[in-house]
Each structure stands twice: as structure tokens, then as C-alpha cells.
Amino acid sequence: MTEIFRTRLASALFVASGSLVALVFVLSSTVGGDPIGVLVHFGGMTITSGHSRSPALLLSIYLNNLSVLLLASLGPIAFTFLVAWSSRLIGGSERNVCGEDEGRLHHQTLQRLSATFLLYGSPALVMIVNGGALGLFLTATGLYGGVEGIQTFVIGVAPHGAVEIPAIVLGAALGFSVADDLMDPLASGDPKEAQERAKNLILDGKTQGSVLILAALLVLAAIIEVYPVF
């Protein structure tokens, strides 16, 4: 995947998830349901208007966003180390796979599917969950608060979201890039090679620089969120 494609994929997952959750929420409310009703409404209002503007809150918000960024960008590396560690525990089980072509093909297919899920799962999940949460709260405030609710939500989220959301999207794009680098050895059943590549990625200046820049953007986003300019 190219860098542009990875960024577009992360953005598409974010938007699609938010849109789908919003649609489901609207439809469920239309037919008389109340999925999480007042709880979501008051939760959204609290998020957008109830800050105490304390340094402790700023630190809490930043650490939460930083954990999301690290899961999106470096999650594939963590899963690679986990697979390498588990492979040492079970010690060469892949050598006991049936030698017949059909059994070997089945085993290789499962390996590739497992590697795809583990490596690309964390950045994709971060985008889906965050997009869904944004769509949920935006729709809930619109349904329960009307135009005023939407205005409150936008005023509360847009300033810091303009910095935070692109940082998380770029973090997920970085995660997809890391997953691309680790895919071949992990899918081919060579966890030792995958672990070496993972170590090299951690020590790579480009990876470190990208994460540090995105982490700095999240500091700015947290400051804007806790100490809004308007």
C-alpha cells in the first residue's frame, strides 16, 4: 500500500464507522427504540461542555489519546513480539504440520489470515471505534438537543478535533505501514525474522520521528480541549 492509500483507508474506516453508527442510531430512534438514550445525551453534553480545566484533566486526556495513538501506530509491532514469544513457548509446532500439499496449503492460508488480522487489526479497530463514537455522540446530541445540541457539540469538539483526529488518522496510516513491513515474515511462519524487523522498526528514526510528532500534536489537542479559546 502507498502512503496516500493508507491514509485514505484510515480516513474511510473512520468516516464509514461514524456514518453507520449514526444511521443505526437514527433508525432505532425512529421506530420507537431508545438505545442508550439519556445516558448518551448527558454523556455527550458533559464531554462537550463540562470541563474543570485542570492540569490533571489535561494529563488524563493526553494519556488517553496517546494510548490510542500508540495502539494505532505501534500495535502491529506489539502483536509481532507476542507471536514471536508464543512461538517460542510452543516450540516449532509448524514443523509437525501434515506434509501433504492440501494440509500445508490449509496451514499457510490460516497463517496469512491470522497475520492479517493481528497486524492490520489494531489500526483498523482504532479508526472504527473512534469514528463510531464520534458518530454516536453527534447523532445523539442532534436527536436529543436539536440544533442547539449540535452547535454545543461542534463548538466543544471541532477546535481540538481538528488537531486530534488527523493525528490519530495519520497514526493509523503509520500502523498500516508497519503492518506491511511485518506481513511477509509473519505470514510465512517466520516469527524470528518478523521480530527482527519489528526491532528495526522501533529503532528506525523515521518511525520514532513520526510518533513523536503525532504525540506532540496530541499535546496541542489536549490543551485546546481543556483550555478552549472560545
TrEMBL record:
Source domain of life: Archaea
One Pfam family from the record: SpoIIM
Entry keyword set: Membrane, Transmembrane, Transmembrane helix
Entry's transmembrane regions: 57-85, 117-138, 209-229
Protein's recorded name: Stage II sporulation protein M
Native species: candidate division MSBL1 archaeon SCGC-AAA259O05
